[in-house]
Amino acid sequence: MPHALHPQQDSAFAALRQFARKRKAVERCEMCSLELAGEHEHLVEPANRKLICACAACAILFDGQSGAKYKRVPRQVLFLRDFQLTDAQWDGLMVPIEMAFFFNSSPHGKMIALYPSPAGPTESLLSLDTWADIVQMNPILNDMQADVTALLVNRVGHVRGASSAEYYLVPIDECYKLVGLIRTHWRGLSGGTEVWREIGAFFAGLKKRAGVGQEGSRV
Known about the structure:
There is one protein chain. About 35% of the residues lie in helices and about 20% in strands. The protein is α+β, with helices and mostly antiparallel strands. The chain folds into two domains: about 5-70, no CATH class; about 75-210, no CATH class. A hairpin with a 6-residue loop joins strand 6 (about 110-115) and strand 7 (about 120-125). Helix 6 packs antiparallel against helix 7 (about 190-210). The chain starts with 6 loop residues before the first helix and ends in a 10-residue tail after the last helix. The mean pLDDT is about 85.
């Protein structure tokens, strides 16, 4: 039969258990195990679209390397103020909601269209003819880096008549961050007020990183 703890010992163990519950999990580089800050680098494994947390020293080893297992995810965010996309072209992309991201997958040798949902990222059948027309109207898309850079589209405000459609070139990890945000906060059929508040804050953060003010003007 185990011995009973002395009241002071019991109190000490209770305090330790409480501290353990409160202590935040520390993120570490998945290459060298170095402790990471909240904002840190990522690598992507194109074969399975897996993101890897990395320190700056490990991430730079994969910068611009061709044929490597991993690719370094860039940090730059661009707000595409003059992006051209008609409603008919959007419909031709066969995305069932008004938010999606598009990236060039090197393992598949084609553009991939994904949209966020409460169940995670969902792939949509992409019309290549429509995509080719969009690239012709927006040559900046030719500069997208395969696997690591994506075109992120937010047309929710446009459809509701509340704001203009927004287009960004972003690091691929930001797209999966948006997916995770929606999975975490979505409630009921419409998502609830919390998830839309989080989505609004997410896109406001992207604009800030791109150096764009509240009304779309350059800061």
